[in-house]
Design a protein that fits this description.
The complex is a heterodimer of chains A (152) and B (170). Chain A is mainly α and 152 residues long. Chain A has 7 helices and no strands. Chain A has one domain. The longest helix of chain A has 27 residues. Helices cover 74% and strands 0% of the residues of chain B. The longest helix of chain B is centred in the first third of the chain and has 28 residues. The chains are: A mainly alpha (152), B mainly alpha (170).
Chain lengths: 152, 170
């Protein structure tokens, strides 16, 4: 049985993969939210730079979400690749990481004072991650082709 | 039971939201947003108690928790929206039953933590470790929430009548 077919058709393949995708999302997005909320003024006595100590866990979660995401794509390649929501989600993920990187660089590495400018960036970060979640969920509802083999 | 839950959904207008074109996936997205808020706050607080990033004082970290409670409440509301709109799909679903068990575990854990542990834990400063009891409760909390997420994600694969499990019977 090919790997793609295993993920798609075995009893455990798809359910286990998608559960890991959800767990990866929880920590990946959750840790970004923690920084965003801190920049927005929550938990003022929590030193901003210490939130970035959770970044190794954030990266592990990202890798878990990425690998499980690739597996889900491999299981139903046409389903994702023929849906523009999939490409939108990828662009949103890249944007969210760029915003996170800028925010981390400014308020953590350069220790800049948290001004309105950075609060807007934090709100943007939350908005992007929420959009990624929405796009991900909508992938299950907006596809037009499930499998190309359906055409043969 | 099913009828009562279902008529609640219909009488409150929940059913018409969930049955609309994008109702179900929008409410699902909010449910995922809520779980990320919970893990990003309560989850990180649990990790701090377990010994991650000890440089953070407990009291400072704990200020994140109200947002986690907001995420939890959002998920209780959105969860009720799913549950009452198709009660038969949840009540007899082994993944949903497992999720409720983890929810109960997390609930008992949080009550126990705040009634017994928190008054000593909250004074723990930077670079100090919380006591063993608090570490065990933090570990259980994290385990329960990860169980809730995993079992929750599995609900769709165990919808009756295709519900096979060792306690499902017939």
């Amino acid at each position: 049985m090919s790997f793609s077919v295993w993920v798609r058709e075995s009893v455990a393949g798809f359910p286990v993969t998608i559960s890991f995708h959800a767990l990866g999302m929880a920590f990946l997005v959750g840790i970004h939210f923690a920084l965003d909320l801190r920049v927005l003024g929550l938990a003022p006595k929590l030193p901003v730079h210490l939130i970035t100590k959770f970044y190794p866990l954030m990266w592990v979660s990202f890798v878990v979400a990425l690998i499980s995401g690739l597996m889900l794509l491999l299981a139903y390649p046409a389903k994702g690749l023929t849906n523009f929501v999939f490409y939108l989600k990828m662009i949103l993920i890249a944007s969210a990481f760029i915003v996170g990187k800028i925010l981390t660089k400014k308020v953590v590495q350069q220790d800049a004072e948290i001004t309105t400018k950075y609060k807007i960036l934090a709100l943007l970060s939350i908005g992007l991650w929420v959009s990624i979640i929405v796009a991900g969920r909508f992938l299950a509802y907006t596809y037009t082709i499930l499998l190309t083999t359906d055409f043969y | 039971m099913e009828e009562a839950l279902f008529s609640f959904s219909q009488n409150t207008g929940i059913y018409s939201i969930m049955g609309s074109r994008w109702g179900w996936p929008i409410i699902e997205s909010l449910h995922f947003f809520g779980l990320c808020l919970l893990i990003g706050t309560v989850g990180l607080f649990d990790l701090r108690m377990l010994g991650f990033v000890k440089a953070i004082p407990i009291s400072a970290m704990h200020k994140l928790v109200p947002v986690g409670i907001a995420g939890y409440l959002l998920n209780v509301c959105t969860g009720i929206m799913f549950f009452t709109s198709a009660p038969d799909q949840y009540l007899y679903n082994p993944a949903f039953q497992t999720k409720m068990m983890f929810m109960a575990g997390a609930g008992i854990n949080v009550l126990f933590f705040y009634s017994v542990c928190f008054k000593t834990v909250k004074n723990i400063g930077a670079n100090q470790q919380v006591n063993l009891q608090a570490r065990i409760l933090a570990g259980l909390s994290l385990l329960c929430w990860l169980g809730v997420i995993s079992a929750g994600r599995l609900i769709t694969f165990y919808r009756p009548p295709a519900n096979w499990c060792f306690w499902c019977g017939g």
